[in-house]
Structure formats: C-alpha cells, structure tokens
Amino acid sequence: MSLYKAPSASGHQAAWSRWDGSPGSSVELRWENEGWTAEIGLLADRAVAVVRMSASWAVQQMLLFRDLPEPDLWLATDGHGQWGEMNGEHRTELDGCVDIDFAGTPFTNSIITHRLPLQVGHTADLHVITINVETLGIVKTPQRYTRHDEHAWEYTSLITGEQHAATVDEFGLVLDEHNTFRRDRDI
C-alpha cells in the first residue's frame, strides 16, 4: 500500500525541465477502467510513452510511440515479473522486473516511489526495465531505492554506482531530481 496520496480521479498533469533548462518531459495521469494511464511526453526524444498501471501503480503495459501512429515498442506484464511483446513473444531476459525506466523523465521513478511502501531509512533493491528510446534497446538494470525522509529518496544504479537524490510531493511524484530534472509546474 502506497504511503502517498492518490492523485484526483479527475487526473493530474505535471512537467519537468532538465537541470540546464532544456525541455525534459511531461505527464498526464488519467483514471480509466479501474487503473491509471500515464501519457508521458519525452520531449528531448520527440516520443510519447503510454504506461498503463493498476490502481496501486503496478505497471501493466507500456507503449512507446516515436514517429509512427502505431507503437514502436509494446511491452506487457502478467503482474508477476514476466514480460512479453505485442506479438506475444516472451522476453525471458526481463523476468523478475516489475518497473520500467526512461532516462528522459523522472516520472518513471515517480511510479516506483509512489508504489513502494518503504518506511524512512529503508531500502529496496529492484530489477527495472531500462528503455533506450532512440535504439529501442531494453536491458534489465538492478537499482536500489532508499527513502531518507517523507519526501526524500535516492536511487542508485547497482551497476555503475551512479546516484540520484530526489524530493517528491504528496503524491510521490518527483519535484526535483538533483542535477537532472526539476518540476516546472503542475498543469
């Protein structure tokens, strides 16, 4: 059970810029069919990702649109860490993953911080599907999430050791990812 408030069922929108002021990303959250749909504008990549989540923010499927009306990539999960593509092909290399991550937005980390029921001072190690929008490359990446206080998190790549400190709002959505993203506004 999430330790953060759920956004209003009428929806929620937010936008982030990169730390240097260049365009980052935006998200429009909608409550539909007993779950959340997040339409994520990946502005630097000129792409849109649509992520379907359960009411408890567990990722169910992801569609990535770059320059075609049909998705360039479509992944879905059975909810137990097994993923497949739109054509039904099981992606065994992704087994055990529950979450996804795009480098071009802090929103995919917000899914995790909203969903994880971590108490202050606790840590969780997760395998996350990291998606390269340009190449459509997909890799399973081990990451550590640590909750430092009610609104402060740190995520660490367990491969490179790279760390990102983030502050989140009452919904668990990133306000500031130090040296990477900052929230422009709630739309």
Strand content: over 45%
Number of helices: 1
How many beta-strand runs?
Answer: 14
The overall pLDDT average reads: 93
How many domains, in number, for the residues? 1
Roughly how much helix do the residues carry, as a percent range?
under 10%
| Largest sheet report | 14 strands, mixed
In N-to-C order, the SSE pattern is: EEEEEEEEHEEEEEE
> What low-confidence regions span 5 or more consecutive residues with pLDDT below 50?
none
Q: Which structural class matches the secondary elements?
A: mainly beta
Radius of gyration: 15 Å
Give the CA-based shape. globular
The strand order across the widest sheet is 7-6-5-4-3-2-1-14-13-12-11-10-9-8
The span between the termini is 27 Å
Structure description:
With 187 residues, the protein is mainly β. The chain has one domain. It has one helix and 14 strands. The chain has one helix spanning 107-115, and strands at residues 12-18, 23-32, 35-42, 47-54, 59-65, 73-77, 83-85, 99-102, 123-131, 138-149, 152-157, 163-168, 174-177, 181-186. Strands 7-6-5-4-3-2-1-14-13-12-11-10-9-8 form a 14-stranded mixed β-sheet, covered by helices on one side. A hairpin with a 6-residue loop joins strand 9 and strand 10 (138-149). The chain is globular and about 40 Å long. It starts with 11 loop residues before the first strand and ends with a strand. The relative contact order is 0.18. The model has no long low-confidence stretch (mean pLDDT 93).
